[in-house]
């Protein structure tokens, strides 16, 4: 997609979940998009807080930006989204890939959610189609469907920049796991190749970083760097070899610490489950259902 306006990107890091939230805009005083926000959650107490999202909100207000889009790259398993909280305070449209419906259907069954929960994506303001173009002032957002980690994974192309979600990581970390419901290593290989078909100078912004060898946290690389140095899928790696590596590696990984609370909240676009008769919302822990 040709786009003469290169975006400004302000990135925030949530250390407990190793998550990056990106605010994308053309200049101060215009529209912006928020990509992959974080609601803080303490798994020991079940308490939520908003200090990570409040940092983002403060920046947006200081720059006199107007939130146009609150985008999710997918329904994360490693952190809770603050999408609904940011919308409540700043407005904007909550959006996610259309295939969230498949993810909702799977997890409605796993969590045995209430009958009123509809697995049709209606919790979001907009369901994004593959190759859809979303307006952002003079910028444009083009969606890339990049399943494999989950069926609903989206990357977002804005000017010379792609926000890749969990599809891939910094070159020395590799690629996303594919053992969640609906994941597929063959499909992930093709999705990563789609991203790496962009020009070498294209900037890639990560959603997470898990740095090895005491490397400092990093959130941006390029297509060229990934093609040369990604430890899982650099140029020359064949699909069958990638799938064998990914399958073997995934079999050794533990479930993310926050997968059970995160997925329940994230498939609801950041809302909590309906309060029960005592005025309290509850999350479920299905026994012997995952992993």
UniProtKB/TrEMBL annotation:
Record InterPro entries: Metallo-B-lactamas, Mito_Persulfide_Diox, POD-like_MBL-fold, RibonucZ/Hydroxyglut_hydro
Coiled-coil ranges (or none): none
Example GO molecular function: sulfur dioxygenase activity
One Pfam assignment: Lactamase_B
One example of a Gene Ontology biological process annotation: glutathione metabolic process
Top-rank taxon, per record: Bacteria
Keyword annotations from UniProtKB, A to Z: Hydrolase, Metal-binding
Keyword Hydrolase: yes
Domain Metallo-beta-lactamase: 29-208
Identification of the protein by name: MBL fold metallo-hydrolase
Organism the protein comes from: Polynucleobacter paneuropaeus
């Amino acid at each position: 997609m040709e786009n003469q306006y290169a975006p400004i990107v302000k990135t925030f890091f949530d250390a407990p979940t190793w998550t990056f939230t990106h605010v994308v805009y053309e200049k101060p005083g215009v529209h912006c998009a928020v990509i992959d926000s974080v609601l803080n959650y303490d798994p020991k107490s079940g308490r939520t807080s908003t200090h990570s999202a409040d940092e983002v909100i403060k920046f947006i207000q200081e720059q006199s930006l107007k939130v146009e889009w609150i985008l999710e790259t997918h329904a994360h398993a490693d952190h809770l989204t603050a999408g609904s909280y940011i919308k409540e305070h700043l407005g904007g449209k909550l959006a996610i890939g259309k295939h969230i419906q498949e993810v909702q259907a799977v997890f409605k069954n796993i969590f045995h959610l209430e009958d009123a929960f509809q697995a049709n994506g209606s919790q979001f303001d907009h369901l994004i189609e593959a190759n859809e173009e979303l307006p952002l002032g003079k910028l444009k957002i083009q969606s890339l469907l990049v399943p494999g980690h989950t069926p609903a994974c989206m990357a977002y192309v804005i000017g010379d920049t792609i926000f890749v979600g969990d599809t891939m990581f910094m070159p020395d970390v590799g690629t996303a796991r594919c053992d969640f419901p609906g994941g597929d290593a063959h499909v992930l290989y093709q999705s990563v190749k789609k991203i790496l078909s962009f020009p070498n100078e294209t900037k890639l912004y990560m959603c997470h970083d898990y740095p090895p060898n005491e490397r400092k946290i990093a959130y941006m690389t390029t297509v060229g760097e990934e093609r040369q140095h990604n430890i899982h899928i650099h140029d020359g790696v064949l699909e069958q070899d990638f799938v064998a590596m990914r399958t073997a590696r995934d079999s050794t990984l533990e479930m993310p610490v926050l997968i059970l609370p995160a997925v329940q909240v994230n498939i609801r676009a950041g809302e909590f489950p309906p309060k029960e008769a005592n005025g309290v919302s509850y999350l479920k822990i299905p026994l012997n259902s995952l992993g």
